[in-house]
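Try this one yourself first.
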């Protein structure tokens, strides 16, 4: 029976042994003349189908499942059926010319009898990739010829199984379910190797999905991730089919979960493109695309520019000033030495007492108790023309402390020092805000470009930039850092 499609089971196809052009025959003749180069090719007829094996018992099937699952934990290595990796020496995404070259030499090696497991694996890899490339180039006849030429050169039943599975999916894609069913009969439904099993599940599920048997799809790919043993190589493809089946059955959240799985394994962009190509789960795909747009829009809106860049830059200033105040206190305590030379006294002292002026003199009183030394921190004294603060020796000063109380300032000097540090750090903060702003503008432009692309893919408008609610923590903290020490100074001076 012939269906007339490019993947018609009723015909035999090959690549011409001399020029590689596709040739095919429907009749029983063995010598087929190439229409391109005139070479005569021998095309062996496919051997007749063996009778379909009797279905396994439930116990047998469960035991097989368990053995397959064990291969997830103990992968076969090297695995002649793992097709994820390109043959050695080939780029990750080879060009068609490189594929054809590799395919030609793989065929030549096989024809010359070089048929090690890895060489046969590479032959399958090239056959599947060349077929894919030919299909994308809309040459289905060439795709078919490559696959069937591989069948002729492959000795191992497992490798042939992989090619037959692909012939199933290609026939499904070519809307030829009759041929797909017959190609499927060439596959081994009870294989003991995980990759071969997963390849078979993919073929069965594609056939059932095309026939509208969505419950049947879920029966082979599992209702949830993990229901059946699936190796990484097939995880994305089977999750796509699961998503499509769930959505067709109206289970939207299960469809979303399956799309999530597929995106996690196969990457966001390729997965969504594949779903669209196969016409699977259109609603889940649209939701995912819209969610991507929303996520990208909110990521863009979170990039600080303008006042928000300043807010971010200001946030660290009060904290940094606090740290520096601590550093400034260390020499004040240990050496009675002030990195600011008591300059804050010039401002504070005239308001503290009659005749007082700065800079103030520092004195730190230490209590020695055995090996323990403690202090309440530095004390600050204003000088006048005649109180001796400016001129006394340290020993005299220590002895006269009780007479100098009225010239002492308690909290105001530290508060004033803190304000000084804030003022010194402010230009740095402004510079940092400028850098953040300029970086943010660039990052937003890039984000907008990406957003337009995602929105176009989703078929919606890119959301305009919105000023999201912000708590302005940086400004608030900075304002508090100014207000509190100012209040401390005002109170101390007012209460004297
Ligand atoms: Zn030819």
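Now uncover the answer:
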């Amino acid at each position: 029976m012939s269906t007339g499609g490019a993947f018609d089971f009723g015909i035999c196809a090959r690549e011409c042994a001399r020029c590689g052009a596709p040739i095919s025959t429907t009749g029983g003749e063995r010598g087929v003349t190439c229409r391109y180069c005139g070479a005569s090719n021998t095309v062996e007829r496919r051997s007749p189908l063996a009778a379909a094996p009797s279905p396994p018992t439930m116990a047998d099937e469960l035991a097989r499942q368990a053995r397959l699952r064990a291969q997830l934990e103990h992968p076969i290595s090297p695995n002649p059926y793992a097709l994820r990796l390109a043959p050695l020496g080939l780029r990750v995404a080879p060009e068609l010319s490189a594929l054809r070259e590799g395919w030609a030499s793989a065929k030549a090696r096989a024809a010359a009898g070089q048929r090690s497991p890895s060489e046969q694996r590479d032959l399958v890899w090239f056959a599947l990739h060349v077929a894919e490339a030919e299909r994308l180039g809309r040459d289905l006849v060439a795709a078919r010829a490559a696959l069937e030429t591989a069948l002729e050169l492959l000795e191992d039943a497992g490798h042939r199984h992989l090619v037959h599975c692909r012939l199933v999916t290609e026939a499904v894609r070519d809307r030829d379910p009759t041929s797909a069913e017959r190609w499927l009969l060439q596959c081994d439904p009870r294989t003991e190797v995980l990759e071969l099993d997963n390849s078979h599940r993919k073929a069965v599920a594609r056939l059932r999905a095309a026939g509208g048997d969505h419950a049947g799809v879920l029966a082979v790919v599992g209702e949830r991730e993990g229901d059946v043993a699936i190796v990484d190589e097939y995880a994305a493809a089977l999750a796509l089919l699961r998503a499509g089946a769930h959505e067709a059955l109206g289970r939207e959240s299960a469809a979303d979960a399956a799309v999530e799985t597929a995106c996690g394994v196969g990457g966001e962009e390729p997965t969504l493109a594949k779903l669209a190509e196969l016409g699977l789960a259109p609603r889940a795909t649209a939701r995912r695309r819209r969610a991507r747009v929303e996520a990208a829009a909110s990521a863009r809106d979170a990039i600080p520019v303008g006042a928000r860049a300043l807010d971010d830059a200001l946030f660290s200033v009060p904290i940094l000033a606090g740290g520096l105040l601590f550093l400034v206190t260390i020499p004040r305590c240990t050496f009675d030495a002030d990195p600011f030379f008591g300059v804050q006294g010039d401002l504070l002292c005239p308001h503290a007492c009659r005749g007082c002026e700065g800079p103030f003199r520092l004195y730190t009183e230490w209590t020695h108790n055995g090996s323990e030394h403690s202090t309440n921190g530095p004390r600050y004294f204003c000088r006048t023309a005649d109180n001796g603060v400016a001129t006394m020796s340290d020993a005299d000063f220590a002895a006269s402390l009780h007479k100098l109380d009225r010239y002492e300032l308690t909290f105001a000097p530290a508060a004033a020092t803190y304000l000084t540090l804030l003022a010194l750090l402010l230009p740095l903060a402004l510079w940092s805000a400028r850098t953040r702003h300029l970086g943010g503008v660039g990052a937003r432009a890039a984000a907008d470009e990406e957003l337009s692309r995602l929105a176009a893919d989703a078929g919606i408008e890119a959301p305009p930039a919105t000023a999201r609610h912000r708590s302005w923590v940086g400004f608030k903290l900075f304002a508090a850092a100014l207000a509190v020490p100012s209040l401390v100074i005002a109170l101390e001076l007012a209460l004297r």
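Discussion: The first strand starts at residue 12 and ends at 15. Residues 18-42 form one domain.
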